[in-house]
Amino acid sequence: MDEIEVVVAHSERATLRVGDVFLKVDADRARLAAEVEVMSLAPVPTPEVLWHEPPALAIAALPGATLGSLGGEVSGSAAAWAAAGAVIRRLHDAPPPSRLGQAGRSIDVLNRKLDDECAALVASGVLPADLVSRNREVAEAALRPWTPAFTHGDLQIAHVFLDGDEVTGVIDWSEAGRGDALYDLATFTLGHEDRLDDLLAGYGTDVDRDVITGWWSLRSLLIVRWLAENGFDPFAPGCEVDVLRARM
Q1: 165 lies in a domain?
Q2: Do the Cβ atoms of 215 and 135 come closer than 8 Å?
Q3: pLDDT of residue 202
Q4: Do the Cβ atoms of 81 and 202 come closer than 8 Å?
């Protein structure tokens, strides 16, 4: 039989790969069901659902490869990045689902979470106060009213597959729903800011870059402690802490 590869695992969910099949196990059965539903609504290529038996979901592997990963080397031509941007735009222009996604948290909720997390980062000594304070200021640009869009909610660069300059599919839709479109763009380019122009060549340039920069800071501030507590390394080169340092 094929070897089992642990793709990602933490206390909330885990993803395993066996040959050409990905098996997702999620403690939140409603979230897993919502993921299946939202994939059926998304107007972009998504993996084939092989079967869904809560708390597990089996999907087929996608052809092609990703453009890279956070903290790793990136690849792909400018045309490939533009193709990814065009697919993301197609998603954002579609009628949004009723479900509120990860990118749809309210300004009040984000402000409270951000204030609490910044205080905890400084009090615990995880990050220096000046780094936290500067990025808290930058993050303000993201805290503004937004028009609801169909968002992926966790659009990491490792979640979009391409074959050459053609997108073959987008994976991991557990956080999808109504939300701020620029959150997706910021997540995709996190740690790879130099490829934002290539992405926007396909997406369109009618975006506020200060908001994207704000999301880079906000997203990184909110997740540093969680990553460190769940076996990930936000201090690795090119990862979240480096994203925060780039704002200084």
Answers
A1: yes
A2: no
A3: 98
A4: yes
Per the rule left: phi > 0, alpha: psi between -120 and 50, beta: everything else, 141 is: alpha
Averaged pLDDT for residues 165-193 = 95
Q: Quick: pLDDT tens for 34-44.
A: 999 999 999 99
Residue 9 inside a domain? The answer is no
List the structure tokens of 126: 């995880």
CA-nearest of 156, 213, 138 to 182 is 213
Evaluate if residue 125 carries a pLDDT over 80.
Answer: yes
Alpha carbons 69 and 73: distance in angstroms, whole number: 7
The residue segments making up the domain with residue 131 are 63-245
Q: What angle do CA 44, 205, 210 make, to 5 degrees?
A: 105
Q: Is the dihedral of CA 122, 124, 125, 126 positive or negative?
A: negative
CATH of the domain at 172: 3.90.1200.10
**Alpha carbon distance, N-terminus to C-terminus of the chain:** 51
Burial class (CB in 10 A: 0-12, 13-18, 19+), 229: exposed
